[in-house]
Amino acid sequence: xxxxxxxxxxxxxxxxxxxxxxxxxxxxxxxxxxxxxxxxxxxxxxxxxxxxxxxxxxxxxxxxxxxxxxxxxxxxxxxxxxxxxxxxxxxxxxxxxxxxxxxxxxxxxxxxxxxxxxxxxxxxxxxxxxxxxxxxxxxxxxxxxxxxxxxxxxxxxxxxxxxxxxxxxxxxxxxxxxxxxxxxxxxxxxxxxxxxxxxxxxxxxxxxxxxxxxxxxxxxxxxxxxxxxxxxxxxxxxxxxxxxxxxxxxxxxxxxxxxxxxxxxxxxxxxxxxxxxxxxxxxxxxxxxxxxxxxxxxxxxxxxxxxxxxxxxxxxxxxxxxxxxxxxxxxxxxxxxxxxxxxxxxxxxxxxxxxxxxxxxxxxxxxxxxxxxxxxxxxxxxxxxxxxxxxxxxxxxxxxxxxxxxxxxxxxxxxxxxxxxxxxxxxxxxxxxxxxxxxxxxxxxxxxxxxxxxxxxxxxxxxxxxxxxxxxxxxxxxxxxxxxxxxxxxxxxxxxxxxxxxxxxxxxxxxxxxxxxxxxxxxxxxxxxxxxxxxxxxxxxxxxxxxxxxxxxxxxxxxxxxxxxxxxxxxxxxxxxxxxxxxxxx
Length: 586
Prior knowledge:
This is phosphoenolpyruvate carboxykinase (ATP). It holds the Pfam family PEPCK_ATP. InterPro entries: PEP_carboxykinase_ATP, PEP_carboxykinase_C, PEP_carboxykinase_N, PEPCK_ATP_CS. Pathway: Carbohydrate biosynthesis; gluconeogenesis. 30% of the residues lie in helices and 22% in strands. The model is unreliable at 43-57 and 436-443 (pLDDT under 50). It has 15 helices and 30 strands. It is α/β, with parallel strands linked by helices. It is globular, with a radius of gyration of 31 Å.
């Protein structure tokens, strides 16, 4: 019995050893299996420089173009196309997403609009006597500009990757300027890829040195202690060094309008009129130019299925005709619907850029009525995305010039034919109105005057642009019209907005020549020629006072608007002829 017990104990010990060996092997096998799984599931922090160098530096990226400027960043994405810039934005920029239409969403940060009070022009010998100094063009010393430039370059040197984009401003090769953009954001590069004229492969190979360079360090603030700075935002332009420096604003529109400001100086110096206007062309080659401030319908009315679009915002008028300055469009997106703006709606696809819009994170559907980020939601897209665009974007001399105003006082006629002096007066005035908002105490519309329909971007005195316009209009026998797309039957709050259908019918009558042959009557106080009839428009709406039920209130509003015009024009009187002064309201 003792022997048997001893044998059993030996067998148990042997089984225990076997079990331990088996268990050890199982654990080892499990560890081998689990190790790669655990490694694959491990959360890793994205490495900014993890993209292989051959993916970050394109073959045509000449590093000397940055090194010569004092920028030593290793990873440079040079003249990338939309697909690459999409990938870069999605990897490295918060708020970026591919939307349901294929467009890219981008977020500009705290600044969702331009900062005109932070714009500066360097006071230097070559341009100091040309610039219209004041609230529009505020001076900056060369020293302060150098500080801002150095600050921008220092910031760009801290970035692990930079984007360089080369493009043209101006569709007419004779008046074309080469622009180079250096930025830390793929969003900015895509925006300027859309907005500048895109060079061909051959043109890029022979691009050479740019005429102007934009340093966009908008994610880094200006130093408020620098002389001439009033905030952490600065957009400064130096015509001597041919540079633009952006600090403290990531809003892409600052680059677009920086280029326009450059053209607004260089072109008039050559006798060419630069214009904040849209333009289109009829089947017979007749060109119409639409001047207008934001909200007047400049983009909407120039998009006409029966006419080819030359451009929606920035143009120049030479001895040969007009040309678009830009390679793309930058349209407001708030409240956008396909019914109202089919061309813009259909342009929102791959390659387009939607700025500061709210969208469903699951579906990528945009809510165009959501203004929780900003009222100034925007979409940028190439000109070619418009189906009836004219490429190259050039045209002949205008036959008609239309000045658009959104008169929220309900005083101005829906259309009036202007004399040459009146055309100059209204061009220099650049009137529209802002409606009452949510601010306490504001119950009436607020007049807005912007000289030449684009004062924030003008460099010369407005008289310079007006003289060029008058000269070209006289030489080419151009008709001038004032069209009110604002209110009728009363001011904002009591009247109603002019119908788009009526405004389009008026413009159709201008293009057909019917309105030029119409019989006219005088509109008192403003002394405007108003047609008695217009095809497909109710004649009752053509004379504003006839649409108001309260004539006393109409007279009060008319008197008020007249006084606002005259008060605004006081600052321009010294540079204007007696004929232009006489075109003022009574």
